[in-house]
Design goal:
alpha/beta; 4 helices
Length: 157
């Protein structure tokens, strides 16, 4: 461990304990993950990005819900202020660092992926595992299926 490392789980537990919560947050844990092998080469796959950043719009700032946005042109900003990370050590001013639309478009042109999907999807950071499993995740899946996406890249912040 380095001097500037952030002990995220310990820090989160301490934060909630300081606010009076008596039960520690239980992070999701699964012995099995529902991943599957690709049915075709990545160079033939349609790809979407799923992020926990929200659109930098009035609706995106006000409504922590599933949103879908056009992949291109890539947004110049995303709303991330409400998310938690060590903000003195890093920032989210460079949207391309966590929403790689232009990089993926370049991969498409180089034949590394089949194509970038028309939309990317935003899923809220949710402290309710039940809401994520029962509402948000199925909604993201339905949107990806509607877009005929083969692969989703998950980019949590």
């Amino acid at each position: 461990m380095k001097e500037n490392d952030v002990l995220y789980m310990e820090r989160t537990r301490d934060f909630y304990r300081a606010q009076g919560y008596t039960n520690d947050y239980q992070w999701a844990h699964y012995d099995d993950a529902p991943f599957s092998s690709l049915q075709k080469p990545l160079s033939e796959c349609k790809l979407a990005v799923v992020t926990t950043a929200m659109p930098d719009t009035g609706t995106g700032r006000a409504q922590r819900q599933v949103h879908s946005c056009a992949s291109l042109p890539a947004p110049s900003s995303m709303y991330t202020d409400e998310l938690s990370w060590h903000k003195t050590m890093t920032h989210t001013n460079d949207v391309a660092s966590f929403l790689p639309m232009m990089q993926l478009k370049r991969c498409e042109k180089e034949g590394l992926i089949g194509e970038l999907g028309d939309r990317f999807h935003c899923i809220p950071t949710e402290y309710s595992q039940r809401n994520t499993l029962e509402n948000d995740a199925p909604e993201i899946l339905a949107r990806c299926q509607h877009d005929a996406v083969d692969v989703a890249i998950l980019v949590p912040l």
